[in-house]
Design goal:
Distance between the termini: 7 Å
Helix content: 25-40%
CATH class: Alpha Beta
CATH superfamily: Flavodoxin domain
Radius of gyration: 18 Å
Number of domains: 1
Bound molecules: flavin mononucleotide
Strand order of the largest sheet: 2-1-3-6-7
Number of helices: 5
């Protein structure tokens, strides 16, 4: 049993940040539930110790490592390490704050590595086909946000991050995504602690309900 916990808060060491706090609760719940069985790998894409290649003129089309510079090879190796980790996870938990209606920029970089043809999807004559499946890869997306996206009319059509994630996963053949939110955290009249407690409760309940077999 391989579990991957991805985190994408730029303030990656600050446990008071909502997404980091939820990630901490999620990790502890998983550790208790697994009780030493299986492996849990945690990766924060903003931690400078974790090298996440970016698409640049130098890294575009990292397909032929034999004809390449040392820099391109370094990027290619890092990219394939990320892909291997993603593909070998049976459960993936992703924690992040909402940034300008979408995933934080560095998480987009991360996905640019994962969405590699021949690895997580392939091109066919009739279009792309996913090479993964929601039967073997269960993805949970935990999203914190300043505004309320389920209920506030101004924002329902700007609910891009979950739609984007569903689209990305669909491309890979994963057509299920559990979404857990802590939303409305920056609305002054809201009780932030109450929102967090409620999200933590939902997260703990959900993580505990999976069998991990
Ligand atoms: C650069 C930036 C962009 C943000 N964009 C949005 C947004 O588009 N929608 C939203 O509801 N909240 C947005 N927020 C608010 C954060 O999502 C929210 O404060 C965070 O989830 C919880 O705060 P914390 O990470 O400081 O604990 C943004 C915050 C920052 C720093």
């Amino acid at each position: 049993m391989n579990i991957l916990q991805l985190m994408a808060h730029p303030d990656y060491n600050n446990q008071k940040r909502a997404a980091n706090r939820l990630a901490d609760v999620g990790l502890k719940t998983l550790q208790e539930k697994l009780n030493g069985q299986g492996t849990i790998e945690a990766l924060n894409v903003y931690d400078p110790n974790n090298f996440i290649p970016q698409i640049t003129a130098d890294t575009l089309n990292l397909t032929n490592p034999k004809e390449t510079s040392a820099e391109r090879l370094k990027n290619h190796e890092a990219q394939h390490k990320l892909i291997k980790q993603w593909k070998s996870a049976e459960y993936i938990y992703i924690y992040m704050p909402l940034h300008n209606w979408n995933v934080p920029a560095k998480f987009k970089d991360y996905l640019d590595n994962i969405l590699t043809a021949g690895e997580t999807f392939k091109y066919t004559e009739t279009g792309s086909v996913g090479l993964m499946s929601d039967k073997t890869t269960k993805v949970t997306f935990i999203l914190t946000s300043g505004s309320e996206y389920d209920t506030d009319y101004r924002y329902v059509n700007l609910d891009i991050a979950p739609q984007y994630m569903r689209g990305v996963l669909h491309m890979m053949g994963i057509n299920q995504m559990k979404l857990i939110r802590a939303q409305g955290l920056d609305i002054i009249i809201n009780d932030k602690e109450e929102i967090m407690k409620s999200a933590e409760k939902e997260l703990v309940g959900y993580i505990s309900s999976n069998s991990y077999k």
